[in-house]
Request: fold
Amino acid sequence: MSERPFVEARDIARYFDVSRPIVQRLIAREGRRSLRAVDGVTFDIPRGTTLSLVGESGCGKSTVARLMVGLYRTTGGEVMFDGMELGAARADMAQRRRMQMIFQDPYASLNPRWRVRDIVAEPVRAFGIARGQDALDRVGAALTQVGLSPLDAQKFPHEFSGGQRQRISIARALSSSPEFLVCDEPTSALDVSVQAQILNLMKELQQRLGLTYLFISHNLAVVRQVSDRIGVMYLGRLVENAPAETLFRTPRHPYTRALMEAVPDLSMSGRPRTPVGGEVPSPINPPTGCAFHPRCPLANDRCKVERPEMILAHETLVACHAVQEGRAA
Ligand code: SF4
Reply:
């Protein structure tokens, strides 16, 4: 019998009401408007592995990140964590302490008026895990795990470089001994050389502590090193989900191929290129059928009216009529 996935998103959706005030709507005779940030996303993450979600800005990947740790409620679908529905466990601190989030900007996510010891100890205290010297011992251990010194606990965030601040963010996330980490663009605010150090650290921590990651990035090159599987999102939906090396070797969805074109340092030898133009459409008024059709070089009439469902093509889950019809090769 196959093992139950540790983390699952089952057809999750999150809509935001972006209607104008009622008086303006009455004057303009318009109804309510909703932004479908995430619109029916399904995936699972086995324990100890990494799923990365990639896509352009506005594709919904950061909203998925927040849904997976309960920072947003789902509009539809459910998040399952170790066999329990996350919404049902919202008030369950024991459940919530098993997951943590690392944010994009280490400058903005650390309180500048707090010493590092208080920043790193925050989850420990919030979840009632330890107090006093025990909490400080946990802080020292977490700082050591991320390559900093326990003595750094006395300092303030401004005394550290960007990479060191992201290490502090990781130490804060680790201090409550979570099993699942959601990492929302954790290296995008850092220099390239520092990015590599942080990614290596995260891989090392995963191996040492058996962590499960959901990794969010707009950059395919970044996620390649850290991912077991990669999911590609477009306008709130997952369009491709494949083992990392399979995705790089045989990208199937036209949008995935377009993203690969945007990565400057990939070896693309032998692979047909399908450059894409145009802007990401508004998620308030997405295109009919396949939302990618206005930008897709393989679009046909069917694509304009019928939304493609996910199909399994070898190891890859992909939502594309051209793949299904055998005309994407
Ligand atoms: Fe392109 Fe059609 Fe596939 Fe959408 S379904 S990606 S428009 S070929």
Observations:
- The two ends are 35 Å apart (CA to CA).
- Residues 253-254, 290, 292-293, 296, 298-299, 303, 308, 320-322 surround iron/sulfur cluster (CB under 6 Å).
- The domain at 7-98+179-266+274-324 is CATH 3.40.50.300 (Rossmann fold).
- The chain has one domain: 7-98+179-266+274-324.
